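Researcher: Structure prediction, please.
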Amino acid sequence: MTAQHLLTTESLVSGYGSRTIVDGVDLELPAGRITAIVGANACGKSTLLKTISRLITPTSGAVVLDGRKISEIHTKELARTLGLLPQQPIAPEGIAVADLVGRGRHPHQKLFRSWTADDDRAVAEALEATGITDLADRSVDELSGGQRQRVWIAMALAQETDILLLDEPTTFLDVAHQIEVLDLLTDLNRRRGTTVVMVLHDLNLAIRYADTLLAVKNGRVHAVGVPEEIVSPILIEEVFGMANQITTDPVSGKPMVTPIGRHHVR
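Model: Predicted structure follows.
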């Protein structure tokens, strides 16, 4: 079982240049649980995740890991605890799948320490978990968008961090592979106790897989809590500006959102 770490934000403000995107966010991300961040386009979901991961420097406020501001933690030390899969990662030209996945082991390398059997194991397990072992020797350049996404997820898994942040991990994947990836992250959470925080576009998949749902609107936390307790027609309309009905997901027993379009009102 993995270690439990406390990851919080304190009055977090961040954005790009003079433009504020995340505005005064106070959060405590549940350790050892799956949190899904949802919201309308351009509401600040990805910016929040990037700031939590230290890709973006806060304008004010702080991200705190186990009582320490992450801005004060050495990059390699932070990377052994906190892993990130960004929205549009870029692979070096011509790199093989196994080599890219192996880069996830970099935070565990020490000065003058060579590649170890433990590194081999981590990479092999990540390749197998994402169903891409047969692609190990292929160039990433040759792969489809869905295959590349699974390679990036494998690299994040090989890093073996206690906290994993993912920005739209199901991008480019068909429905079957979306479910496979979310099942994989759930397995990781249940088997190792990994804290998973992910931005998802598919609201119903977010509700189904999340222990905690974090709804963002205009750069602020509009609602946070157990999906069964916070999801309502009013919340969905406030966050997404969308008329809707809430029923019960026949698979998970959790709330399921059905949008109501103008042409489908009885």
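Model: The chain has two domains: 1-81+161-228, 92-160.
Researcher: Thanks, that helps.
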